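Fold description:
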Amino acid sequence: MKKRKIVVIGWIMAFFSVISILFMIKSFSPIKAAEQANDQVKIDISTQTDSSCATVVLTIGNTEKQSLILETEGLKYIEDEAIENGADSTFDGKLVVTDLKEQKNKKLLIEGGTKQLVLSFSVEQEATGNSGKINLLGDQQVVLAEKNVDFTPAKMKEMQSVEQEAKPLKQSRALTRDATTPPVDSLPLLDVFRAPIGTGPELINNGKVLRVTKNMGSQIGAIWSQQKLNLKKDFHLKSYLYLGNRGASAGDGITFTLQNDPRMATTPTAVIGSSGMGLGAYYGGRSGNPYVQRGLSIEFDTYFNNGSSNRMDREVGENGKKGHVAFVTPGLQNNSYTGQHHSWILSPEYLSNDTWRTLDVIWNSATQTLSYTLSGVGSDSYRIPDLNTKFGGTEVYWGFTGSTGGSYEENAIAITQLPGDIEQTAQIENLTQNSALQETVDAKKNDTLKLKDTIIFDGNSIMSTDGTKMRVNLAEGLTYRAGTLALDGVKIPETSIQQVNNQLIISNLAFSRADVPYELSLEATVTSSQNDVQLKTTFDYLSSVNEVGSSSNPVIVNIPLIKGHVTIHYVDENKADLAAPKTINQKVGTVYNETPITIADYLYDRTEGNASGTVQETPQDVYFYYKKAKANLTIQFVDEANGKLHEALVKEKTIGEKVDLTKDQEVKEAITEVLTKRYLLETSGRPTNETAVLIEANGTQVTYTFQGTLSIYSGPTEIDFGSHEVSWKGTKDANPSYDQPLVIWDNRKNLDSWKLSVKLEGELSIPDSPTHVLNGVLSYQTATDKKTLSVDAQEVLRTKHEASGQYNVSTKTWGPDKQGLRLDVPSGAVKVIGEYETTLIWRVEEAY
């Protein structure tokens, strides 16, 4: 057993000797590492709001077995119980405090401890004097540690505090690189926080990670922002939270806390809560335990406090020692069984599981609601009805607190977006038109513009002194002029500018002063061909992970409405207007597309100018040329049944032209030819407006309609009964000869019946002796009877054509045994021998 203790002590000494080296490296930082765990004793003093009181924190490294004497001067008597209650609950029964004979001196007997003891209690000033003193003595009355207690009046302290805060805190860049590294590159925190309070908080990883507690027991710490947050404005804290890798053995946790503790103005180092269950923010349940006043915390609690003296978590439940997240108001009632957690979420997994979790804390000023989202756990929110009741005002400090006890873990946070306010005011001017700086300018193509963003940070928004990014969201239609980007008049190297489409991302900018304006400026050229449009540009302040932390108002380039004119002309070959011109009066850039129109009697020929395109600022003319259209004039020659009597004549004419067919030789010849075919052309059969036929666009067709005729196609010019001797018997002849047949022509439409009649021009007589006449000797034998011919016409035949054309009466009906002419001279009728003759008149007509 003795051998084991020697080994453990040797390991502890070796470990803390390394920490000692780290402490020396980091000694230039205002956020210092915790004091060494194997220091025998240490005394820390913080004066409370009431300047007659102070909080004493004793750190005692060796708790295996040790006897110490506590001496006080200028302080009121301290109750034994007050000192014992200031210890972690793991020291219950291991710390005994008793009075010594010397007035107000105490004996501290510590035995059976396995870790350092952090002992916190309050002391009061005696009636006289402004200071006191505390000594810790070891064996043989050797002074191990001593500390003066300063009770300087509050006003004087306030002046000292203000004077101290006026000096900017600077931190050495010589920070250790811890093995606990967040998954992203986070923001440097050198200028964000005040000096830490207690034993825990320190910056690691080149100042980009805040470690609230180390992976060791009995630590307590708090750290607060340099500047206040204005709760009348929204804020968003983006970060990564690490709660160690201790699983069910972890303790106790950390808080994100907003506070307006009045001691921040006088004794800011006193603004810290109790250790252990108090997480550095709450009341620990023992007399004299401090807490953060006028505050609200989000706790990330890895230890279930369910003891008799540390019972705050009973209402939450153990949750398998996985931990919980909750809203808590620090106060004197924090160690009550119930009612201290406004709401909580039980973690589904160990909070301390070697995981960097994303943590977003969001303040909605409109609803006065604080909300958080912790990856792997969930989201919750808490509404504050009255800011004055909660915080005593509308501005608060923000920061982190944490503690470990018998159980412990490493607690760290890396911030990617800080809460705070950035004011951006963007303006623009037209250099070409010499306009003033304003939010909106008029411009036209090829104008040169200057754009400027004035940036003012409040104290909380100073994220770093280098490495910041800005993004210019340049409007489409504007083109960046290379080499013109500048910060406060100093040109930014092109190597620090990345252009993606119309966005300019500027890296490695230095913003290190608060409440003093910066000016980011650039020039751009208007390249847009559009008009009557507004081109909007904004400036974005980017976090280290390229998320927008703040945006400017838009600056607007107003390209006014510019109209152009396109005139469309419809003309003939001589550029004479055939229709009224069309005018397009639209804004420049408007797309147009014109096509020829239909014009009577004309056909589209060609285009001169751009029939399609965009309206330009200068006038444009488009000419659609037309020529007189040609169309066919078709002339038909038909009978009444629409039968073709002649090949149609087709003539190409100009549309709109009027043609006189009576003067067309081909037409006249065609008519003559048809007429020779025994057709008639009546006026009704001629085309309407024969002398002025209009040529239509689709062509014109006219028709000559001929009527068929009923006529004598041919007839005998000589009918000869021959020579006959005069006989007492008389003379008869039924078979005269004739030189050509009697033919009837019928090409009428309906081929109706017709009748043939004949008469004598005079009685048969001797031409040289007209008195010698043979009366009544000529007759015509019909199908039914014989008719004596006379000077009066008599019907001799009634029939009809079977088909259009000729009907040969001679061959069809004449003959001795058929029908035809007959000679019948009675006896004694011839008085004079001679050649008798007469003329027959034939007539054919429709039979009704």
User: Anything to note?
Assistant: The first strand starts at residue 41 and ends at 47.
